[in-house]
């Protein structure tokens, strides 16, 4: 597995040999992209901060990993923390940041001491004067969003901010800031160290109705059936959920590439694969995920704050067998409204799973509707 392949700080050594511009050019040529979900080119993001004039710059490692069904960052921290920290040091020295904040998911509190000890050892070994501060999250899903994570570190309530300005312009304490995901930093170190680095290798978090949930490393474009078969499905798979925010689609043979997945209005995102079997109700799944988003909405914008509550109430009505065709149409209309008018990615993707389910498993919904006169 490439992600557990340790560099022994060779990537950092090369960084110091070729300099910041050399690092950015290498990452550009090797097509290193962010692994948090957006897939933005690392070189482009770093170069933007490098070109922004400021006396102070910051780096944030996003280890919040609040997406249900995603646990690859935890796996990396536990199994290859040295390469992760090396990648962070490479990034800091490249963009000119003296202080780094490692934002660790609140539920990973048991990893804090382990991580801080590893940071101390790698910093000593690397002879770096970078300061890496571990900040614990408080369990807020919204803090996976880069502007919300910045507010949280500053001591404010974790809520997204309007863009522009973007973090690379005015981020942490209004200074240019790079925010990258845990897995991204591992890829950075490996891209600089290994000639055979492959940017298409991805970590898939597989869970749900399987006997062997866990992390599987495969090439982007691998067949879904190959990965799921390794996880040993308990029953015949019915649907695949790409985390909560990524939507769902019926289980069928497909190549796991954005073009294939996003073509059905889903999002590949952080490569989460939650298997729902043929005994799982699409409506029950919609209800559980909607309950999650209702709880996790930060409350800043009305569409997400109020809309998801109404979605949940309509689903409750549907599950009781009290919903009408008019309620079903309202559920779809409201889902689209929330998606199109919410401020940040949380609200914009909070109803994707429902819209997908209503499209692909429509009969499960309509079978529960109250029959009206004339039908």
Written description of the protein model:
The structure is a single chain. By secondary structure, this protein is α/β, with parallel strands linked by helices. It has 3 domains: 2-193, Rossmann fold (3-Layer(aba) Sandwich); 201-277, Roll (Ubiquitin-like (UB roll)); 282-366, de novo design (two linked rop proteins) (Up-down Bundle). The chain contains 15 helices and 9 strands. The protein is globular. The mean pLDDT is 94.
Order of helices and strands: HHEHHEHEHEHEEHEEHEHHHHHH
State the CATH superfamily name of the largest domain.
NADH-ubiquinone oxidoreductase 51kDa subunit
Mean pLDDT: 94
Alpha-beta classification = alpha/beta
Report the principal-axis shape.
globular
Termini gap: 57 Å
CATH class category label of the largest domain: Alpha Beta
Number of strands: 9
Tell me the β content.
5-15%
Please give the largest β-sheet.
5 strands, mixed
Named CATH topology of the largest domain: Rossmann fold
Which regions contain 5 or more consecutive residues with pLDDT less than 50?
none
Radius of gyration: 22 Å
Instruction: Give the domain tally.
Output: 3
Q: Biggest sheet, strands in spatial order? A: 6-5-9-7-8
Task: Label this structure with key terms.
Ubiquitin-like (UB roll); 45% helix; five-stranded mixed β-sheet; globular; Rossmann fold; 3 domains; alpha/beta; de novo design (two linked rop proteins); 375 residues
């Amino acid at each position: 597995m490439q992600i557990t392949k340790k560099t022994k700080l060779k990537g950092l050594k090369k960084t110091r040999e070729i300099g910041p511009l050399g690092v950015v050019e290498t990452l550009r040529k090797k097509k290193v992209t962010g692994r948090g979900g957006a897939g933005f080119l690392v070189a482009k993001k770093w170069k933007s901060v490098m070109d922004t004039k400021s006396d102070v710059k910051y780096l944030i490692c996003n280890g919040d990993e609040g997406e249900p069904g995603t646990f690859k960052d935890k796996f990396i921290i536990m199994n290859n923390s040295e390469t992760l920290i090396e990648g962070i040091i490479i990034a800091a020295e490249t963009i000119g940041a003296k202080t780094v904040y490692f934002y660790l998911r609140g539920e990973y509190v048991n990893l804090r001491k382990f991580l801080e000890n590893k940071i101390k050892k790698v910093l000593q070994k690397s002879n770096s004067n970078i300061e890496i501060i571990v900040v614990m999250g408080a369990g807020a899903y919204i803090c996976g969003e880069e502007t919300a994570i910045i507010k949280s570190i500053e001591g404010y309530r974790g809520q997204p901010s309007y863009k522009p300005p973007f973090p690379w312009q005015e981020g942490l304490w209004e200074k240019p800031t790079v925010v990258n995901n845990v897995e991204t930093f591992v890829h950075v170190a490996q891209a600089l160290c290994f000639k055979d680095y492959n940017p298409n290798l991805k970590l898939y978090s597989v869970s749900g109705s399987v006997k062997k949930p866990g992390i599987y490393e495969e090439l982007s474009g691998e067949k879904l059936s190959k990965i799921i078969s390794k996880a040993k499905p308990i029953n015949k798979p019915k649907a695949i959920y790409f985390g909560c925010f990524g939507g769902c689609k019926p289980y069928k043979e497909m190549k796991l590439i954005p073009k294939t997945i996003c073509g059905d209005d889903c999002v590949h995102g952080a490569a989460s694969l939650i298997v729902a079997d043929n005994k799982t109700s699409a409506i029950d799944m919609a209800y559980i995920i909607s309950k999650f988003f209702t709880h996790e909405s930060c409350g800043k914008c009305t569409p997400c704050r109020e809309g998801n509550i109404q979605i949940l109430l309509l689903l409750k009505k549907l599950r009781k067998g009290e919903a009408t065709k008019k309620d079903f149409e309202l559920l779809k209309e409201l889902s689209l409204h929330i998606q199109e008018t919410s401020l940040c990615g949380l609200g914009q993707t909070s109803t994707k799973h429902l819209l997908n389910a209503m499209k692909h498993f429509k009969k499960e919904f309509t079978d529960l509707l109250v029959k009206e006169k004339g039908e």
